[in-house]
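User: Structure tokens for this complex, please. No commentary.
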Amino acid sequence: MFADKSASIPKVCYEIFVRSFCDSNGDGIGDLNGIIAKLDYLADLGIEAIWLTPIHPSPSYHKYDVTDYYAIEPEYGTMDDFRRLLTGAHERGIAIYLDLIINHTSTLHPWFREARKSKENPYRQFYWWMTEEQIDHLGISERETSDDSQIVYPWHENPGDDEKYYGLFYKGMPDLNFHSEALREEIAKIVRFWLNDVGVDGFRLDAARHIYPAWDNAESVTFWDFFSKIVGEAKPSAFTVGEVWADTEEVAPYFRSLNATFHFDLSFALQRMLVAGRDEQIIDKLQASFQLFRQFNPLFVNAIMLTNHDQERIGSVVEGNIEKIKLAASILLTLPGQPYLYYGEEIGMLGQKPDPHIREPFLWTTDPDDPQVTNWIAPEFTTPKTVAPLSQQTGDPASVFNHYRSLISLRKNEPALHQILAPHIQPVQLGDDRLLGYFLPHATRPLMILHNLGDSEIAFQIPEDKSLLTEVLFSTDPSHITRLTANRLSPHSSVILAPERNVQRVAEQ
Ligand SMILES: [Ca+2]
Ligand SMILES: [Ca+2]
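Assistant:
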């Protein structure tokens, strides 16, 4: 049931919020040709897969409410542009994942325009409809808010209709009802179109846990079995990564059919840890979640991130502290799994809610009139005054950008660092919760990683069985360049240690 895709699983991925990344035609809106122009940049950074936020026609700026699943949003380009993007990415060994939003459509989608006309309309069954009495009878007129939806009253008025429609996120986004076989067939056609006719490499699956509403939620996991079967039949190599924004326990069953799911619990734990400057047994928690995931799929892919387009940017979480921004990257890029960088993290972009401001324009150069820089929104957090633009960072060995670039390169070259399938990690006890230590067992070359989360220098004691790991592969502490010189780490610094080569050679003889 689980195909071995290890050889082709991208090692480092990158989420692009299309509207903000790069503009190619001077209208201030990021577009597909802008992304094509930056493929060399992404390849040089070491990216092997791009998750594009939605590119289908949609009335909103974020485009998570689709009106046509077969077309490209005109603001972003044409189908020809998209095909050229795909070709260009593939030439550079970069996969393209589409953001597929099938929990809901826009109210302007032709299906809903039809459905709302009458109860007899054949598209009526594509959505959820109930009278006030039915809603009250089932006790579902209100819901508890969740991390991904603040909506309390999910039933919305259709003028002149005694039935209301269900829209979990917003009245402009009616939820689709997958009890409809006709709808399932439409979704299958859409999947085949993008995988086979166009040739994308996979999907990021929006709102995967909400596919069925709370009162029917057991069906949500089962739905993805159906969906994955279609994907597997259309293109066995295609990759799926689900947004299951919930506790690890609720996430685990989705591995039954999806290749990967995003690890939200880890993302928030990393953020808390960086803010507090203290470990919260994060490695033990990771081990426990791996054990849980394995029960549903021995080849689970843990999709890890610091933040995404729905969370405040990591740069702002750590209040713009460059050392902590680098520390965050050092942790993310040394943990097992498949990391997803959110565009701009690699230059230390800042951003706080409301949502548009965690999605501000990428800062390519210092030129205030640089036509590549999008300007659909006036940035409040990421400006040349607060964040060094990329052009300033590329030549600076101490920049956030070069930190990311070196770590990504190391991750891709060290087998212990890019354990994606069947990952192994063990905590290393250092006797101080301001320190985070872990060991990555590996037959080729095991590694030990140490981070000082605190803001003062800390001395530590390395456990006896790890005492031979003294060769420095990477360090942000200037006192440890090639070897671990003393058992001390400077504030917010990290070291990646391997067994010393001489010792390794003796041991092998
Ligand atoms: Ca444009
Ligand atoms: Ca739903």
